[in-house]
Amino acid sequence: MPKEININKRKAYGSSKDKSITYTERENLINNLENTRDRVILIAGAYAGMRQGEIVQCRLDWLEWQNYNNIKILAINIPDETRDLKNKLKLWRPKTKRPRTTYIFDSMLAREFYNFFKDNPKGINLCERNLSEYRVKIIMGNMIGRKISSHCLRAGATNYLIKEIGLDVGDASTILGHRDERTTLDHYKGLSKSNTEANINKILNSKYNKQK
After folding, report:
1. Which of 136, 171, 195, 207 could potentially form a cystine with 167 if both were Cys, beta carbons 3.0 to 4.6 Å apart?
2. Residues of 41-72 as b/e, b for ≥16 C-beta within 10 angstroms?
3. Which among 66, 110, 64, 58 has a CA at the least distance from the CA of 84?
4. Which of the given ranges, 82-96, 100-114, 143-157, has the highest pLDDT on average?
5. What is the pTM (predicted TM-score) of this model?
6. Using an 8 Å Cβ cutoff, are 161 and 103 in contact?
């Protein structure tokens, strides 16, 4: 008897599109995580769209305050590993062999992020396994009631940058380090449904509805 084939069946571990954290889950985490290191991991992944290896290697000398129209935002300058001579650990390899810059647009989160690295200039001092298996999957996963990976945080940052910050796909693609805008657009299309609740909350909390 021929084996039945289900073309819509998920892969063993699903995909980032299936597992991306939603607006409500992200807000739940940022409002309830108390450990500073865990909060920094969440900010780096879900707000700045950093990859797991980048979070592990992030250091104070990557950070730079920039002013745009009198608004201060925190830039994270992720170096080309081959040119980052100060980095002795070599724990990660960027997918693209070129440096990129991502940003933390929320001023309060940016200040919290910067202050952590000011006190810990060499970084979060965690291996990738500890970050993904314990800090994200267990601690954060238990808080929102389902299994997530560190890439789920980065996947959710796509919607955050486009729908909440208001960047176009091209700018978001550059910040996220995608080689092609179509990659970002594909993630954005796949993730948009998971962010519907954010749009509903905005409508319910709008000035019009409050007056009504």
Report:
1. 171
2. bbbbbbbbbbbbbbbbbbbeebbeeeeeeeee
3. 58
4. 100-114
5. 0.76
6. no
